[in-house]
Design brief:
alpha+beta, four-stranded antiparallel sheet, rod-shaped
Length: about 150
């Protein structure tokens, strides 16, 4: 009786195919995890800047109202900027979204300013801002500012 030691070519090919499928699935899951983390971090960053503007308005820092300017840029990365005064003229600080993210509200080519009143911190109007993944527009986070100044997402 002859006993062959080792694997057949067919067994090796099946093992390689299973291994490749496992690696491919893992890479896809890791990519989705990274994108969702970037989306969540962006939403948290926007909320932090909105709350910062609101706190500065309440404390009358620089004796001015404070706001956040959101820009959906047609060619380039969308951004949001902290500003003071009655309207957006110049930014105190600017944050650019990751290249894998974009605003869907405001839409591409549009801007949105959210200004908080001195002393009260109440916004000039109820507003919302939505950030989403470019390659997966269904994955998004909407930040809402109520007429009383509550900021949530």
């Amino acid at each position: 009786m002859i006993h062959d030691k080792g694997f057949t070519l067919f067994e090796v090919l099946i093992s390689v195919a299973i291994g490749a499928a496992l690696v491919g699935g893992s890479l896809l899951a890791l990519s989705n995890l990274r994108e969702n983390a970037a989306l969540q971090n962006a939403a948290q960053g926007i909320v932090a800047v909105l709350r910062n503007a609101q706190a500065r308005a309440i404390s009358e820092q620089a004796k001015a109202s404070w706001g956040v300017h959101f820009a959906g840029v047609a060619a380039g990365d969308d951004y949001y900027a902290l500003w003071s005064g009655d309207e957006f003229i110049a930014a105190t600080s600017t944050v650019y979204l990751s290249p894998i993210l974009e605003f869907s509200d405001p839409v591409e080519g549009a801007v949105k300013d959210i200004r908080f009143a001195k002393l009260t911190g109440v916004p000039s109007a109820t507003a919302s801002v939505t950030v989403r993944l470019i390659l997966n527009p269904g994955a998004s986070r909407t930040i809402t500012i109520s007429s009383h100044g509550a900021i949530s997402f």
